[in-house]
User: Fold these one by one.
Assistant:
Number 1:
Amino acid sequence: MEMPSGYRDFRMISVAHEEGNLHSFAAVLGNDVAIKAYREEKLPFPDGAIIAALHYRHVSSEENNEAFGREQSFVPGDPSNIQFMIKDSKKYASTGGWGFAHFENGKSISDEAKIKSCFKCHAKIKERDLVFARYAP
Amino acid sequence: MRKSKSATWFLPATPLDAENHRKEEDLKNYFVTVLIACALMASILVIRQKVQAQSSDSRPMGKASSRADSFGAKSEDQKTSLNLVTEIPAGYRDWNMISVASVGGKLSDLRVKLGNDVAIKAYREGTIPFPDGTIIARLAWHRVTSEENNVAFRRPAERQGLSSEETTKLLTESFVAGPAMNVQFMVKDSKKYGATGGWGFGQFTAGKLDNESVHKTCFSCHGPAKDHDFVFTHYAP
């Protein structure tokens, strides 16, 4: 799978933060089809929907902490990976209509076992069309 | 006698004397010209007044500042020194993402910074100071753990070799955006907000501008980021 072009200009769906073991930030962005479906609460997502999860390592921000007066501010550090879910109910019929992709340093990790694990985990949220991220107002 | 005199004034001129008749015609023409000129001037004045009234209405602060003038200068001075952004910039939820952040402690939030086109262009080109017209939006939500996510993540986490305790730790420290907390804006206008580094500040909770005391620390707190034009947030690739 090719990296969808212009994904960095997609609009924001939501944000997540894993402070425990992974020390990771996730910014979840969606293309126009995805954003429209989210705002209209349309499930399942229509074909053409693309959801991008931009993951970053989390770092403590010295600059910000100076302003807050203590260490409590975390910001994204280096990007760790970018994951995509692309809806095409025919092409990806065997995985709930979604194609999954994982990129590191701009390169696709097309390890089949890894992609299979994507679907396996996302299949647990079937009632939301395999999508974990909810729209943040 | 008086009656006949006044009567002759408006009676049609008799063609007894051609010279007199010509003089009367000249007088009539003169009055008509003066009348038209007066009407023109009056209408120009009315139009000018209307245009002035419209342009002061279209300025966002026009009404507020004239109100402040009539109540004395004090409230206007306070507004200037705080440099409040009093209206939520339209369409901000559709802007591109600059970065994300999380603040722990008492705030315990998740944040996203969005920028309008001017802001995003400046970030991507590394332009500092930010040009006039830049708007940066900071959206904050209470961070919450997601039960529905954690139910799904537990098994895969354990499969990857994490103990049950480690998995629980992982999941209880995994946060998503919950209810909205507030939205803040920084608006760049180097003339209008000259006293506060060229930035206007505004915090809105549930769509309403928060009270003035909230805004007293905006500019002073942004002081440490002076080298980055008072903006803390850096662009996430």
Number 2:
Amino acid sequence: MPNRDKARAKADVLQGTLDLMVLQTLAALGSQHGYAIAARLEQVSSGALRLNMGTLYPALMRLEQRGLIRGDWGVTDTSRKARFYAITAAGRRELRSEKAEWQRMTAIMQALLQDEA
Amino acid sequence: MIARLIAALREWTGRAAATAGRRRDDADLERELRAHLELAAEEAERRGQPPARALRTAALDAGGVAQAMEALRDQRGLPWVDDLARDLRYGCRMLARSPGFTAISVISLAIGIGANCAAFSFADTLLLRPLPVPRPSELLVAGQVNPFEDSLESSYRDFLDIRDRSRSFEALAAYTKSTAGFAASVDAPAKLTIGLLVTGNFFHAVGVQPQLGRDFRPDEDHVPGRDAVVILGHEFWTQQLGADPAILGRAIRLNGAAFTVVGVAPAGFTGVDQFTRFQFYAPLMMWPRFAPDAGTRLFEARDDRRLTITGRLAAAVTMAQAQSELTTIGADLERAHPETNRNGRLLVRTELQNRIAQAPPVATLVAMLAALALGVLFVACANVAGLIASRAPMRAREMAMRLAIGAGRGRLVRQLVTESLLVAMAGCALGLAVGAAAIALFSQIQIPVDLPITTVFALDRRALVFSIVVAIASAVLVGLAPAVRAARTDLTAAMKATDAAGHGGRRQWGRRVLVGGQVAVAVVLLVMATFVYRGFARELRSGPGFATDHLLMLSVAPKQLRYSEAQTQQFFERLAVSARQTPGIVSAALTRYMPMDGVPPSTAIVPEGFEFPPGQDSALHASSIVDEDYFATLGVPILQGRAFRAADAAAAPPVAIVNEALANRYWSGRTAVGQRFRIDGPRGPWVEIVGVARTTKYTFALENPKPFVYFPFRQRPADSMFLLARTSGDPASLAATCRELVRALDVNLPIANVRTMDELYRMRSVVVLDVITATIGSMGVMGLTLAIVGLYGLVAYAVSRRTKEIGIRIAIGAGRWRVLRMVLGQGLLMVAAGLAAGLLASLGVGPLLSSIFSSRMKGDARADASAFALVAAAVLAAAAIAAYIPARRAARVNPTEALRAE
């Protein structure tokens, strides 16, 4: 089943970066529900990153299980019930170190790719 | 790094907690997903989409709720555990839906596993259990072969030569068993104990360190009778001395002499014997204290072979090298000491080989049982395999269906394995119960002695693990077959295919042979059980040849208190006299050997004028030393001549009484009375036969007639004697009185073996025979059950595959009776073939049984034929029922339904 395998591979690549994106979004914008996070990522990427619920929500659950974010039911501006996620102290620490790691990594990649060119 | 580790840990504890129950439930997760879609739709509406389309667009963008839920469920708990729980539930439901299949599979496996547990536990107890020493398989036994017991033994002088000259061994130690009267202090009454007298390096050689105190010192093994030190057995120390560590350095009394306790053996070390749990270890040099009359002869005479030599091979030496070195040493000893070491070939064996060599009937029995049990397990597994295979086509369609609706192949395989495991595990659990029941049965066999000699039957762990692994492996392998088939086949074809698809013809053939073979084996087992039962019942009915009722016995060995020979003799006489004067005792007698109580002592005799084969100058025969009242008290008739008289005393001419078997062996057709033989070898004194006694059973109810010779107590002193009393009332009620008789003569003398003859005979013969009969009988029933189950499975399978064909036959006019006959006939053909093969093989059962038990096990031809007929009828009846059930189903096939079904 090639489709399935491809989907899984994509999800695996995404997993590390997706965690970072979600943490960064929550740190920047404060408490958000799942749709708002997805919409924000879509907006920032100019529509390139359209998250499936089957990718986004397991990621949120994983972060919650790790104690990096905390989710609670709340009400949106339009009076709809939704589950809002907030970053925890542990989440901020994780974000800091992951961010540094990411920047170090991109710097290396940058240097390497430029060199190549 | 650590932070990430902690995070991962938290994730997994969170998942575990969710699995265990604390979780967001599905409804909550779904609510969140729906909220997401609604928010997305709201957004789309805001951008100007019509509300009806907005929600659909949102759903298309964000993916389906169902898939997201599946991903969330996977993330939420431990997917493996969740799946397992689901598989288990589903598996249980599947198994419950076909209770017949489940029950038959479980029972088959239970029988297979139970039989193996029982057989190997039996083997373990009687033969195979390793000694409680480090690396027990490396322990060796060396010495000269005793042709009568096939044991390896050595004299002390030979041991010293072997020890000093051999280079093949790490260390060689020697030991001998001895009983002793033990008393904690001078004034305490003595109790009978058994211990090992060992050379100083014994503990070093077997590889055991005393748990408390110290090992023997080398100098404690040099001077006969000087170093009265003792190392206590752990069990003895705990039970008799309250596990008091302060006992070190204090003295206990053995045979009336003080021995200083220097150590305590580690817990679990019970000595170097399979059954005896030794209570103390003393230096071999203390032998004179344990055999006062023998003095120091043990240390000087090369023909006093009562030692066992044990040790381990030195590094890089093979058994063959050790054996060739011993052969050389043996030949040298033979040249140097021709008078004592003639034919003295030296052998080395592993300790296990030695055990097997010493008990060939046990080894045969154990091998037979083990082979049977393995066969039973094989048949059980084959049965289950057959049953599962017969369901495979049906399952294959189910699997194809599930694959088609999107199940992963891995999940299907897991599902099937789970089902097989369920069957295997239920079988194992029930099998354990069967094994435990068998062990409870075996445990009825106990050797009736006062000494700590035990046969502990316990579930053998290795056998258990082996059986469970075989059962699970076979169930899983066979269970996988439908999954593999499903994974291979093209879905549409599999779903369309009818069961009648032609594959598997060869397997069918194999299964037929298997069922036939099972029937044959069951027949042999049942014939055997019938023979055994009949033979045993006949032997038990005919009795042991002596009276067993109204008899009470006890044994004493005054030498344990260092009585001299004359004092011992006097003690026995006074004991017999006082017993005869006791009210309630009709008559009393003395005997060295009590029938049914272990192995009788043997005496070498040389009948006058008898030509022995070359190389042999005498014959060893079982013997006893009895007084003048023995034959009358035990109820053994004197057939010719006379019984002993008080006048057959030391000064009178030496006389003996032989049994009929011995008389027939040497003086067949002549009167034995008046004949003479020499005792104790070709230069020994002449003894005249004054009577011939009836041959009785001596050691076991099934033994062949055994030549036996009796000597008068007044002419041949003995160290230990039984007092045998015939009572007017219940013999057990006089036990205390008889103990008092001994105490009145010497309060310190240990009394042993206080029991009635009824009890001894029951324990030594009746119980053993009952257990053997029950074992073989239940194996026969198990074998038959398995064969019938196999037959049923096969016929049912054939019917289920031929439903359509049968439907057609009925539709075109075949009568139901005819269909019934066709199916039954095919089933019974296999049974008939198996039955014939089994009956043919059963012709060998009679000779086999007589070789194992006794020549008298053979029945006459007419009785054999009736046993054969009985078994054949039983097997046929059972088989007919097993085949009839599916055959009736076939006959009831409704042609219209059968044709429409596929």
